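Translate sequence into structure tokens.
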Amino acid sequence: MHAQAIVTVFSALADETRLDIVTRLATGDATLSELAEHYDMSIQAVSKHLSVLEDAGVVSRRREAQRRPVRLEAEVFDLMTKWIERYRQDAEARYRRLDQLLTQFDDQNPEKDEGATP
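Result follows.
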């Protein structure tokens, strides 16, 4: 996933209302009106939040006769999960190396514990 795309997705999800919209859409598609029922704001304001999510690729809208449901795009989260996982693995590897160095240091300096007074 391109760095700018990741920034755009994280920025879109940084807003509490948009994050809540994503949480609601995780259970199923919903129309703008159905989503707006849950917020103390105008339909236009909810529509702007949806536009931000749509621009980030997090949601999509399609036309079904008179309805225009909003759908969560799970592929974006799969890509983000892979991106996050790569850095999580790197961080874990660094911590393992640090643990090894600290263990070696402790093994080379056993007198540290002998001279300590409680």
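Note: The radius of gyration is 24 Å.
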